[in-house]
Amino acid sequence: VGLVGKYVQLQDAYKSITEAFIHAGAELHCKVKVKYVNSEEITQENISEQLAGLTGILVAPGFGNRGIEGKILAVQYARENKIPFFGICLGMQCAVVEFARNVLGYADAHSVEIAPTTTHPVIDMMEEQKNISTARRISASVTVTATSSITLILRSSRLQAWCPQVSTPTVAWLR
Lower CB count within 10 Å: N or C terminus of the chain? Predict the structure, then answer.
């Protein structure tokens, strides 16, 4: 399983995630091998090499714009190659941004926290959190915005998207 994040040099930064992998593996009677992938080093040119051979991808939480484009590329790679994906906090936000950009065609889609002037804000902060420092907001909820052309719904760790012109979900690849 690839663990994509910007703090991979400090593996203790993701200690709870790696421990969860160990416990899940024990429950399933298998050993989970974790490959740490630095999101700051992922590019369009090297993504196949960086994520080759992975049977699952977890995009880790974090905050700020450093390494964000690498995380979004990792999500795209998982979606296009049908690799099981799990996004935690910012990782799930990256999934929403990736889908809006590459499936819906909103090239500048982003979170208003990362790109306040985006013309396609697909992630927003809750009103009561807009004047709170990032450090105090880290564990806060994410609000997904809805536009007239798409509604994005987060439910039970699954991203489901419905477009008005389509009667069935257009994405259900997060399992």
Answer: C
Reference 126, options 141, 138, 113; nearest CA is 141
What mean pLDDT comes out for the span 63-87?
95
Nearest to 69 by CA among 48, 95, 96, 43: 43
Complete edge-to-edge strand list for the sheet that includes strand 57-59: 35-38, 2-5, 57-59, 85-87
> Hey, how many other C-beta atoms are within 10 angstroms of the C-beta on 13?
16
| Residue 64 region by backbone torsions, left for phi larger than 0, else alpha for psi between -120 and 50, else beta | left
3-state secondary structure at position 19:
helix
